[in-house]
Amino acid sequence: MANDGLSAGAAARRLGVAVTTLRTWHQRYGLGPSRHEPGHHRRYTVEDMVRLQVMQRLTAQGVAPAEAAAWARRSPDPAAPEPNPDSPASFAGAVAPADSDEPVLRAAAAAARESILSLVESGALIPDVRPGDGRAGGGQTIALGPRADPAARGLARAAMRLDAPSMRYILESAVTHRGVISAWNDVMMPVLIGIGERYEATERFVEVEHLLSRSVTEALSIVPRPARDLDPRVLLAAADEEQHTLPLEALAAALAENGVPSRLLGARVPSRALLDAVDRTGPAVVVLWSQLPGTGDVTQLEHLLSLPHPPLVVAAAGPGWPIADLPPLVTPLSGLAEAVRVASAANA
Ligand code: B12
């Protein structure tokens, strides 16, 4: 690109969009050309082109234009030093001698592409999608430890603002780019535990907990499920009267990522219904989740073990189970990665 920037026509051609689209992005979303010489049309600079690349890429992925523009406006200046040395996004590669032509644009484009996803994922860029969002949380925060992942921080902020699009963006990016186990352990779980503590201390923020739970469910459901001709040999269920299911949803998604299909019965499965399901489907593994001590009744596990054809593995998962009093043949599970290992091995 010449030093004096690109005309609208040239910029549109480079981006592969119509000139009218560029005009719309300028007029509606403020993503216009910034170089202005008196007596000449405005020109698009390298920085403008980086922002437009972000806009183009996000809208192509189905992000609403207003939201995409919010991200694009916050894109770092490619010529500025990288603000966060830990961030994999590096705009340093976009810095080139001022008089260089195509390489600058190519580097800026590549840097923009690389950086969008990592910045979104890191939680460093949270678009202000809706005006007034700042008010919604009333300055309240979800406490996370000092070593919390930046994406978890971004998620906590978005959750307190009841900002579902941003939550969804952060969560889906985490699932897609890190995989389910890390997305759950490093991003979802700390924020869920944090909002639980906030609720316990204040008896407020149930609305935050509900919207966050819903967003987690939606993000976990984007993981493609294994082919339909594979018969699921893993059965996942919450104990009788147990409404907490998110860890099982994470387990189903993590297993799917490993090509292992599962049946997830969901919340509050009465013991009789669980036994009937096992009888009809003959699973190799049953994972029963209890979050609350009140639902961790071990007779549910004993009944499973005394079936004429018991599953190979009967696993107790969740903090509700009395670990010391579990029947000897029950496998206790303490984390998602372990659950994936045990269920995958028994399924093989
Ligand atoms: C989301 C949520 C809900 C949602 C659930 C939505 C859903 N679809 O699952 C809804 C709104 C339904 C809900 C309801 C209630 N909830 Co609730 N909820 C939560 C919250 C925020 C997250 C739950 C979760 O997914 N936990 C899983 C992970 C994130 O947390 P964890 O269990 O502590 O993780 C540990 C282990 O389980 C293990 N682990 C983590 N992930 C995995 C995965 C696998 C596969 C394995 C094996 C292990 C494992 O590692 C962690 C470290 O040890 C928790 C907070 C919390 N700390 O859990 C409160 C929490 C569990 N809820 C609580 C309460 C009080 C309730 C209600 C009674 C509220 C009410 N008054 O109605 C009801 C209970 C209804 C019922 N009978 O079940 C309390 C329970 C306190 C207690 N120990 O008794 C908590 C702890 C909040 C708090 N701090 O006060 N809740």
TrEMBL record:
Keyword line: DNA-binding
Q: Where is this region: Disordered?
A: 66-97
Q: What InterPro entries would the database entry show? A: Cbl-bd_cap, Cobalamin-bd_sf, DNA-bd_dom_put_sf, MerR-type_HTH_dom, MerR_fam, Meth_synthase_dom
Under PROSITE patterns, the record lists: HTH_MERR_2
- Tell me where the transmembrane regions lie: none
In this chain the HTH merR-type domain maps to 5-74
UniProt cross-references to PANTHER family, sorted A to Z = MERR FAMILY REGULATORY PROTEIN, REDOX-CYCLING DRUG-SENSING TRANSCRIPTIONAL ACTIVATOR SOXR
Name of protein:
MerR family transcriptional regulator
